[in-house]
Design goal:
The protein is mainly β and 187 residues long. The chain has a single domain, classed as Beta Barrel (Porin), CATH 2.40.160.20. Helix content is 6%, strand content 68%. The chain has 1 helix and 9 strands. The protein has an 8-stranded antiparallel beta barrel. It is elongated. It starts with a helix and ends with a strand.
Length: 187
Amino acid sequence: MAGMLLCASATLQAQTTIKPGAGINISNFSKDPANGEVSGKTGWQLGGTVAFGKKFYFEPGLFYVGRSTEFVTTGSSAQNVTLDLKGFRIPVGVGINVLGNEKTLVSLRGFGGASAFFITSKSGVPATVDIKSTDFGLYAGAGLDFWKLFIDASYEWSVTNIQENVNQIDIGQARNFWLTAGLRINL
């Protein structure tokens, strides 16, 4: 109990920064199916994070995301199918301010963590692919802060297959590039 109170006290005394933002993402997969190929398309995200700490920080977030990937099949029944997934991405990360701090005009950060993507809608899913409702991943990235603005770039590796039955089509794990920009509101 004393440890929990100490941790809560340290969090309350730490610098808190609210970071609403929007951005783009590109989603791809770790391997192409045997009868075609997969290519990433540009998607979007809207949401934000809250960072707790100064030099080292903890940063949970919530984003509503639209991800898109194109499947091009070859052979006698060649076709193009675009898989569109929408849902909530919850990243939970830790980071370090490498250059500068919350009081300097420009600062550079490095960060990483884990995330979950909860799919709320899907379209363009081929009949042979059963998409799971949750995708878990690990990510790493860097951020640049300029005055009250920020831009974050990160790369995410899924640790789970996004499809249920890999015997039909095995596209592997998702690979996502995230680019987010927004405001920094220091409390």
